[in-house]
Amino acid sequence: MAQLVAGDSRRFPDARAQRTKPGWVVLLDGPAERVAVRGVSRMAAPAGLVLETTPEDAYRSLVEATRIPAAARAAKALAVHARRHPVARFLCHHGLPLWHAGANPCRAESDPAGVTTIDLGQVRLMMAGLRGLEALARHATTGDGPADPARVAAALSWPILPAYLTRPVRAETARDGALVGERCRQIVATSVQVLQDSSRLRHDVEWVTAPQRLQPVTHAHSDLALYVHVFIERLLHLS
């Protein structure tokens, strides 16, 4: 099993929810706190604080916050999440992973004063899309035949895939009233690849000490990559 190593993870003790004209956001206000996550090594300098929570805890916290129906309560829960868990280098102003366009990171959303924000609607869309992909992967794993249009739409709801793939997939689903298993598996596998690249989750082999040996290492170069790592682990354990 690969050792998980994180970059410069940070949480924001002063994060707070704020209502704006477009909707609720969380302001990552005040100084960020450099943290290490339990069970995750660091590739940067030692953190000022080692959290008692794991990446799995952070993922579950984000699921719970984004499933609260009332927007005001959900935004406040998301602010609590940002105060407790790593959320640096998360989503860009498009609501996509920062490196969705390639090597150069896209800019994060910010308020007029330049404070980085996390948009509740965007995070809700991300988590809904991940749930949709997980459901589609489970469906394809169990071999229950073609996937119905609602299941396909849920898996494509977070627009991380290129149009050259999603356009024919939607057309085939509309034409046939379902999507065949091979296409479903393609959507899931390609989505995982895109998520790894756009969140900067890297898989390497490196020398480690005590004793000296080559070992697979997974590098999370952004905090979003920690969540992507947990999501992929969930897919790998589907039965």
Automatic annotation (TrEMBL):
Top-rank taxon of the source lineage equals: Bacteria
Q: What is the organism field in this record?
A: Microlunatus aurantiacus
UniProt name for this protein: Nucleotidyltransferase
